[in-house]
Structures are given as C-alpha cells and as structure tokens.
Design a protein that fits this description.
Strand content of chain A: over 45%
CATH class of chain A: Mainly Beta
Shape of chain B: globular
CATH superfamily of chain B: Globins
Radius of gyration of chain B: 20 Å
Helix content of chain A: under 10%
Number of domains of chain A: 1
Order of helices and strands of chain A: HEEEEEEEHEEEEEEE
CATH architecture of chain A: Beta Barrel
Strand order of the largest sheet of chain A: 3-4-5-6-7-8-9-10-11-12-13-14
Number of domains of chain B: 1
CATH topology of chain A: Porin
Largest interface: A-B, 39 and 34 residues
Shape of chain A: globular
Bound molecules: protoporphyrin IX containing FE
CATH superfamily of chain A: monomeric porin ompg
Oligomer: heterodimer
CATH class of chain B: Mainly Alpha
Structural class of chain A: mainly beta
Helix content of chain B: 55-70%
Distance between the termini of chain A: 28 Å
Radius of gyration of chain A: 18 Å
Amino acid sequence: MATDNLRQALLIIALVFTGLSAIADSKILATGGVSGIEGGSGGGVNPWALISGYGSSGEWGATAFSTHVRIDDFQLWSRGGALAYGDRVELSFARQTLKVRPLDTSIRQDIVGLKIRLIGELLYSRAPQISLGVQHKTLEDNAIARALGASDDSGTDYFLAASKLWFAAAAGRNLLTNISIRHSRANQNGLLGFGGPGDPSRWTAEMSAAVFINDHWLVGADYRQKSGQLSSVDEDDWSDIFVSYLPNKRLAFVAAWAELGDIAGLQDQSGFYLSAQVSL
Amino acid sequence: MNTASGCAVSEPRSHRAFPAAAFLASVALAVATILSGCTSMTNEPLFERLGGESGLEALADAFLIRLAEDEVVVATFDDTDIDQFRGHLIDQLCELSGGPCTYEGRTMAEAHSGLNISPKQFNSLVEDLMQAMADVDIPLGARNELLGMLAPMYHDTIGG
Ligand code: HEM
C-alpha cells in the first residue's frame, strides 16, 4: 500500500532525525499545538493552522502521538506522527482503529496529511496565522461503510485554518482561537467511508477556543461540523471540552470530554478522550 | 457573568440545541468566570501592575541576566553599550505601559537593522523576557498584556 510505504518513509526520516539529535527548541511553548486525531497539529479534535513541533526557519521538528477515545459503544485509537520543516510545512500520518463494540469488529483508516502555513505568525501578526491543509484518508475495512451506503473507500479533505493568539483577552489570560473551513466527502471522518446517496461533497466549519490558565495549562472547547451524507444513519456535529498540559516542549497531554452524537445508528455517543504526545 | 453573590457559572445545555458559536462562547465565559469571578478584577494601570519605575528596573536586570545566559542571542549584544540599552529598554517599557517616561532611543527598525535577527532568536529573547517577568513576580495578566504590546514589534525587529 502506498500509505504503508509512506509510513515507513516517515519512520525512517524520524529515526534519521533523532539520530542527528537536532532537538528543535526554537518556538514558544505550545505554539506547535498538540497532535490531532488526524495526525497534524491542532487542538485534538480539530486541526489548527499551527505547524507541529518546535522547529523554526531552516530547522526540522517532529512529533509522535497516541490518542484514545472511549465513548459508549466505540473505542478509537489513533497513532502517528508529523514531520515539519521551517515552521512552514508539515507532513503527518495517523492510523486510526475504531472498535465497534456491539458488533465486536474493528475498522482501520490511514490518514496522510500535508499542511502549509500561508501567512501570519500566531503570536506576532495582526492577521491570524493561516494554513492550507490536505488529508488523504484510506479506509482499510469497508464492510460497515458499504453496508450503510457509502460509495467510496478513500477520500481527500481540504481545509483552510486560521489561528490567532489574543494576549490577555480572557481575565488577563491569553486566548487561542481557531476557525477552519473544510471540504470533505467523509462520513464520520472517513471511518464510515466516503460519499453516499447525498451531495458528492460538502463544506463544513470547525471552531476551537482555548484559554491559557498559565504557560503550561490550557482549557478549551472544540466544535466540528460534520460532512456525513449517508441516508441510512444520522451524523451529528461533534463538540468537546478539553484540558491540555504541556510540562515542557518535549511532552503534551490532553484530556477531553467529547459529545459525538449519533454514530452508525448508535445514539448519543459521548465519553473520554486522552492523548499523549512527544516532540523532538 | 458575575452575580452579586459571587461567582455563578451558568449550566451548559445540551450541545444539540446549541449553535457552535454559542457552545464555544458559553465555555469561554464559564472559564473566564471561574478565573475572574472569585478574585476582584483590577483596573490598575499596566505600569503600576509592572511595579512602577522600580519594578521595571528590577525586570530589566532580571532580563539582562537571562540574556547573558542565552546562547542563542547573547552574541548579538557583543558591541552593545549595555547601560544605554538597559536605560532605553526601561524607558520604552515605561512609556508603553502608560508610565511617566519618554523613550528617546532609536525606532525598533533602526535599532535592529544590520543585526539580521532570526525568528529563532526573537522567540528565544521573548522566552528570556517571559522568564524574567516570572523571576520578579509580575502578575500573569500584566505579563500577558506587556507581551501583547511587544509582539507586533516582531516585523520591525527580525531580518533587518
Ligand atoms: C519585542 C522585542 C524587542 C524589543 C522591545 C527590543 C527593544 C530594544 C531597545 C529599546 C533597544 C535600544 C535601542 C536604542 O538604544 O536606540 C534595543 C537594542 C538592541 N536590541 Fe532589541 N528589542 C527586541 C528584540 C530584540 C531581539 C530579538 C534581539 C536579538 C536577538 C535584539 C537585539 C538588540 C541589540 C543587539 C540591540 C543594541 C543595538 C546596538 O547596540 O546598536 N532585540 N532593543
């Protein structure tokens, strides 16, 4: 599989990178974001305009992460990493495994992402930092998706994200906001396949806001509209509230409570989201 | 958000009935309420919250100590008259924060031209300043406000 080759390539690059032990330390804490469930830098559930890691111009940055989501009838694991160059370009990979407990079965999806910072500096420009992203998603287990009426096993999402830090905006604390628009055909982010009897594609919006309680702790919320177009089952927008802890530039942890609505006919899915990340 | 009795936080309702912006706004307001509702909000000018003239002198000294230990930026200051730099920095921070001073140094673009400062160096100096502000116990809100005033100077400072 092309994605397997890519994953190996990423792994080799990461190993070479750690071998050189050029540990990037050139950005302010938290400005590399944390790993999202789709692999690239973001707040957790939504990708942001930030570039992974702590590399600045001419330097590499890299991240590896593991995320676990446990909601009523499902468990999701997402693991992967990202490689970034010059706080400008980010290449990411995520392997998602969704366990569907009532059916005692699992669905796997691979996501390769590319994100480019177009303009702006999260901390320093009046305009927000704006990035363009592409995520190519490939569903490896399509039985459930096909049974529910999805027309394809792979799809490509495009998104434009704008992130900005507002100094001392919330009771003297810094506020980080992100707004994105996404063009996608994915049902439940691709885990239930792509396309269906409805429109061939859809524009959706994503929003996040987080307050820095201090330099190391953030509290925030995400809202993510969904593009699902299966007629057999409903798909709801996602929302969550999260706490992130970044003890230093090497480690980041996120704990969240997520409300994911109806998924594949199972109603009102909600539960915990836990994520850990290492940055080089 | 603050009621007369103290720090009430409104119950979030089900997200289903909620548009996205209202969901985020309610969480942000709840957080702001928790952070500010139980402590008295201060309207003291920034200059006062930085500790006035003596506070800024202490900050400048803590900052110079951090700078001296910072391998990424210290060489940039090899040819600098540190006493003059210190004085101008104090005046600049004093004026910016609304204190009774006038900055008489060069513009940021003039002062930093020819130094070819990189984003990495800029970030490193910002970290020195953040640590220096913590070293002299400036309250978090005042730290963030000052950083917000200095942040836009990035574009005049780097590259030149
Ligand atoms: C927001 C960020 C910054 C502020 C507010 C600031 C402020 C100042 C001030 C007030 C002066 C004195 C100008 C004068 O005496 O006419 C100065 C000079 C200087 N700054 Fe900055 N600066 C910033 C960023 C940087 C950075 C990132 C570096 C290097 C890494 C740097 C290196 C210098 C040097 C070397 C001088 C002395 C130049 C000379 O001696 O001719 N500054 N800066």
